[in-house]
Every structure is written in structure tokens, then in C-alpha cells.
Amino acid sequence: MTNMIKKGLALGLGLVVTTKEQAEKMVDELVKKGDLSREESKEFVEEVFQKGKETQKELDQMINQKMKELLGELNLATKEDIQRLEQRIVQLENQQNESE
After folding, report:
1. What torsion, rounded to 10 degrees, do the Cα atoms 11, 13, 15, 18 define?
2. Which residue has the higher pLDDT, 72 or 8?
3. 3-class DSSP state of 23
């Protein structure tokens, strides 16, 4: 039962906790209340921190994907489009200078 509670807390808190310091502070409170032993606290902090990092990575990926979709729908030029056009302008300028 304790293991299941810890996993549930780690998952829920992983969504909220973004720094190791915050996780350690939260775990210190759990130790003070007697909900967690000192031995379990280090492992729990690391688990919560890892969950937070994983969740942040997933959120970043979802945001990036959504932004790409939105930009695609707006039909805006990308960095690659602009770089390609800049290269083409340089080529055309070079051709024009050669023919003069």
C-alpha cells in the first residue's frame, strides 16, 4: 500500500515539481510528518524529480508539435524557407554581376 501511495504521489507531484530543491523541500515535510522515512526520502526525491523531468519533456514535445501544426495552418514562412530564399537571392545577384 505504501509503495502504491508513493507512486501515486510521485506521478502527481512530478507534474508540479520542476526542481530538485522543491522536491527535497516537499519530502522534508513528509519526513517531518512521519509519512516517509529518511531512508526512503532520497529515493523518493529522485523519483519525483525524474517524473517532473519526463513530464516537462513530454509537454515540450506536445507544445512544439502543436506550434508546428499552427504555423503550418497559417502558411507562414519558416527559417528554412527564408534561408532558401536568401541563398537564391545571392545566386541571382551573382548571375547578374557576371552578365554585366
Report:
1. -130
2. 72
3. helix
